[in-house]
Design goal:
The protein is mainly α. It contains one helix and no strands.
Length: about 120
């Protein structure tokens, strides 16, 4: 700040100094802007690479999930088949138990008849 007027030479020197300072500040700004653009480009490239890797992993996991779901369906189908077979066998066991009981009952009746005779 100057409270007194400047002579034309001093004004020119002051303007020259200010212009020099302005150019220096603009150069520094340009340098920082360039660095920022470079950094953003690298950051974008890194993010893109990470996205590609994550997408690849996602595809692998989806494929694995599909395989596991198929295996689960097969196991559930096998489980249902085993349940049906178990029910059939349980029914056959009941029938065989009834036949065994009928056999022993008839044997006992024959023994009782022979004992009475």
């Amino acid at each position: 700040q100057h409270d007194q007027p400047l002579c034309p030479d001093c004004t020119e020197i002051m303007v020259a100094d200010l212009e020099k300072e302005l150019r220096s500040s603009e150069a520094e700004r340009d340098h920082y802007c360039g660095f920022l653009k470079e950094w953003e480009a690298e950051d974008e490239a890194m993010i893109t690479a990470q996205e590609r890797q994550l997408n690849k992993e996602l595809q692998q996991l989806e494929k694995e999930e599909a395989q596991l779901m198929q295996e689960l369906q097969q196991i559930e189908a096998e489980q249902e088949a085993v349940k049906r077979e178990s029910a059939v066998m349980a029914k056959e066991k009941e029938e065989l138990d009834a036949q065994v009981e009928a056999y022993w009952k008839s044997c006992n009746e024959c023994l009782v008849k022979d004992a009475i005779v």
